[in-house]
Amino acid sequence: ETVIQSYVDAYLSEAVPPEQWDWNAFMQALRQVIPTDAMPEIEDMKGKSRDEIKQSIYERAVEFYEQKEQFFGEETMRDYERRVMLWAINTKWIDHLANMDYLRDHIHLRAYGQRDPFIEYQCEAYEMFQQLLQSIREEVVRWAFYGEPEQQQQQARVSQLHERHDEAGISDAQRAESEAAIASAEERTQVKKPVRVKKIGRNDPCPCGSGKKYKKCCMLKDQQRSMEVVS
Predict the structure, then answer these.
(1) Among candidates 41, 25, 29, 24, which has minimal Cα distance to 4?
(2) Within 10 Å of residue 186's Cβ, how many Cβ atoms?
(3) Domain boundaries, the chain
(4) Which CA distances in Å does 198 have to 159, 172, 207, 208?
(5) Nearest alpha-carbon partner for 89 in 123, 124, 138
(6) For residue 117, what are the CA distances in angstroms to 12, 98, 112, 123, 188?
(7) Nearest Cα to 36, choosing from 52, 15, 57?
(8) Does residue 27 sit in helix, strand or coil?
(9) Nearest to 158 by CA among 123, 184, 189
(10) d(CA 40, CA 27)
(11) 20 to 30 A from 68, CA-CA: which of 10, 81, 126, 213?
(12) Residues 128-154, buried b or exposed e (16+ Cβ, 10 A)?
């Protein structure tokens, strides 16, 4: 609900007359975290107040998510949500620490503009923390709606295959052959677990041999590569 409110505030501003709201931009931005099927139609929201719009989107999204929960199972979805939340917090927190390091290393430059670096640091650090929280919320919502619990994906595909086979009158032998093909494909596409290596501390010497601290050398590039692999 907080994520929906943030998009309503950004695209359906109180300072702009409702007839001038950019509905296409609003829906396009919201689709980054909530699927189209989980949102009401634009025509169904026009003429409503901002609070009514937020509530209608929220209710439709909840209805969509409850259907997904019924499909995968409540226990499976709770476990999936916990893993998504831990991943989002860990990933975004690492980015936040890197941004804070950059701010800390460069805040003294504000003094050249006749501004108090300490006050500037406090203000920007607070703003960055609020951005961190919002980023975590959006990432969790995005993965909750667009992602699927891994252990259930094959079962879902087999179930859908059964339905199609029943409709087409496929024999049991042909059905078993199809299921075996799905299982084989799943095994081939499984990503091997990475070999565990010693974690490099932010203040440790960079392993590239530059002589600089890791946080001031290759840390950001390594984090970006890590995020690309996950995505």
Answers:
(1) 29
(2) 14
(3) 2-72, 74-148, 151-189, 195-231
(4) 42, 50, 12, 15
(5) 138
(6) 35, 19, 10, 10, 55
(7) 57
(8) helix
(9) 184
(10) 10
(11) 10
(12) eeeebeeebbbbbbbbbbeeebeebee
Q: How far apart are the first and last CA of the chain?
A: 25
Q: Would you give per-residue pLDDT tens digits along the chain (231 residues)?
A: 889 999 999 999 999 999 999 999 999 999 999 998 899 999 999 999 999 999 999 999 999 999 999 999 999 999 999 999 999 999 999 999 999 999 888 888 877 777 888 898 899 999 999 999 999 999 999 999 998 887 555 555 555 555 655 555 555 666 566 556 555 555 544 444 444 445 676 677 777 777 777 767 777 666 655 544 444
Q: Which residue has the tokens 């169904």?
A: 44
Which residue has tokens 């590239």? 208
The residue type of 24 is N
Alpha carbon separation from 141 to 33, 90, 229, 230 (Å, rounded) = 6, 16, 20, 17
Residue type, position 149, single letter: P
Q: Which CATH class is domain 74-148?
A: mainly alpha
Phi, psi of 86 (to 5 degrees): -65, -40
What DSSP state is assigned to residue 112?
A: G
Q: Side chain identity at 115, as an amino acid letter?
A: R
Residue listed under structure tokens 């189209």: 36
